[in-house]
Amino acid sequence: MAATTTRSGSPPTLLRFDLAERALHWANAALFLVLIGTAAVLYLAPLSALVGRRPLVRDTHVIAGLLLPVPWLVARAGPWSAVLRADVRRLARFDGFDCRWLRSLGRDPFAPVGKFHPLQKLNAAFTAGSIPVMLGTGSVMRWFRPFPLEWRTGATFVHDWVSLGLFVAVAIHVAKAVSDPEARRGMWSGRVDAGWARRTHPRWADEMAREADGRPGA
Amino acid sequence: MRPARPGGDLGGRSGPENDIETHSISGPDRLIGRRVVLGMLGLGAAGVVWGSKLAEAFNRVLAPVQARDGTGLTSLLPAAGRFRIYSVVGFLPHRTAEEYRLKVTGLVDQPLELSLADLQAMAPTRLVRDFQCVTGWRVPQVPWKGALLSDVLDTAGVKPEGRAVSFKSFDRSYTESLTLEQARLPDVVVAYELEDKPVTGAHGGPVRLYVAPMYGYKSCKWLEEIEVTAAVVDGYWEERGYDTDAWIGRSNGRHDDPVG
């Protein structure tokens, strides 16, 4: 299956996310939704009072948190992970263009965006880093007995502030998705309009075009 | 659903053309993503160990800001001064002001069953103090109103062999205790008002204990029974490792500022 498809009558599309990546994304999204919902109930007094059932909400939160690494491990483990691994490498690397973009905050016309926007890369790094931090601090909060009381307080402090950061990151991520139907389509169906790719991710569109031409891509 | 990728390299950046372009125009790759992840792990671990001191510092900075904040938005910030609702059972116990009764039992001359109106008829005490939880959060300058526990005990009459007081919650699980000497302090009240309003169910209403000089776990919510005993009986959290004498700043390994 070619990366670029052109059918008569329909505009050309590019494959942006394969099935494994989309499954991972939506499994993560579902767990995050549960985590944020239960966190809100645990954290906001009026919601706590409304919902009650604190141990149930807490256990749901803890279980969803402990499950968080599972989709990632499954997605990484199988023979289906090649595209995911490649995208993880992309996300981890800020190339010269990304650095220029960040330094100029997008005003530099010679800093075209690749497959992932530099801010998407930062979001991915923050979210990826937050998961072990939240698992660790959450575990100290939940199973606090072997630890000094100070650690419980410290873990609560870290857990609270990172969760606030995550909430902001997820809110921005969702707001961006809501404002861009084509980006949403990419995560639902895996494919995006080639014109959208050229406008919003020009370097990636170039890569895909080079590959379609049969030249060794970048 | 795999795209045909002639170069075989999905990593994105090793093609010769792109290397030339990138390096001549924009400089080399940076592993910023990895640095962010490792940095967060380091900060997270440091935060667990030193976070309680950091949280105390935050509280000091945020408390005055929050006091002037009319929107209440700063109270949503972690570690900012606001109550967190804790309950050791799976529900928020509920009892209306009308049906509420406080039992005073044990080593007393006259066991009592007091209604909310009975408590309100006793000489009221109003206290404004910071509320300090043993897990670190602190709510600045909270007004409480209630009857002195000492007056309640005097109404029932403590027998000479009575040396301590146990508290039971109508959540049917939580218990607390004080020595008789602690119970007679002038800032220990059976509270029915919090922030100048009736104590809500979430905050332990209609009636709860407020032990001003001690960490919050002493201030038994949903107070149902006061029992005078011959010796201190450890409460719910004491059985789970908390200090029995929970003086703020001088127990549980903490060094919080005084709350007055």
Report the strand count of chain A: 3
The tally of beta strands of chain B, per DSSP, is: 10
Oligomeric form of this entry?
heterodimer
- Rg of chain A, alpha carbons: 20 Å
The computed structural class of chain A is mainly alpha
Provide the CATH top-level class of chain A: Mainly Alpha
Outline of chain A, from the CA principal axes? elongated
Number of H/I helices of chain A: 11
Going across the biggest sheet of chain B, name each strand in turn. Answer: 2-1-10-5-6
Order of helices and strands of chain B: HHEEHEEHEEHEEEE
Write the layout of secondary structure elements.
The complex is a heterodimer of chains A (218) and B (260).
Chain A: E1 4-7, E2 10-15, H1 19-43, H2 45-51, H3 54-67, H4 69-77, H5 82-92, H6 96-104, H7 118-142, H8 149-179, H9 181-189, E3 191-193, H10 194-200, H11 202-212
Antiparallel strand pairs in A: 1-2, 2-3
Helix pairs in contact in A: 1-2, 1-3, 7-8, 10-11
Chain B: H1 16-26, H2 32-67, E1 101-106, E2 112-115, H3 116-121, E3 124-132, E4 138-148, H4 149-156, E5 164-169, E6 175-179, H5 180-183, E7 188-194, E8 197-198, E9 208-211, E10 223-229
Account of the 3D structure:
The complex is a heterodimer of chains A (218) and B (260). In chain A, a hairpin with a 2-residue loop joins strand 1 and strand 2. A three-stranded antiparallel β-sheet of chain A has the order 1-2-3. Chain A is mainly alpha-helical and 218 residues long. Chain A has one domain (15-208): Up-down Bundle (Fumarate Reductase Cytochrome B subunit). Chain A is built from eleven helices and three strands, in the order E-E-H-H-H-H-H-H-H-H-H-E-H-H. Chain A is elongated. The longest helix of chain A has 31 residues, at 149-179. The mean pLDDT of chain A is 87. Chain B has 260 residues and is α+β, with helices and mostly antiparallel strands. Chain B has two domains: 1-71, no CATH class; 83-240, Oxidoreductase, molybdopterin-binding domain (Sulfite Oxidase, Chain A, domain 2), CATH 3.90.420. Chain B has helices at residues 16-26, 32-67, 116-121, 149-156, 180-183; strands at residues 101-106, 112-115, 124-132, 138-148, 164-169, 175-179, 188-194, 197-198, 208-211, 223-229. A five-stranded mixed β-sheet of chain B has the order 2-1-10-5-6. In chain B, strands 3, 4, 7, 8 and 9 form a five-stranded antiparallel β-sheet that branches. In chain B, strand 7 and strand 8 (197-198) form a beta hairpin. The longest helix of chain B is centred in the N-terminal third of the chain and has 36 residues, at 32-67. The termini of chain B are far apart. The model of chain B is unreliable at 1-25 (pLDDT under 50). Classes of the chains: A mainly alpha (218), B alpha+beta (260). At the A-B interface, helix 2, helix 3, helix 5, helix 6 and helix 7 of A face helix 1 and helix 2 of B.
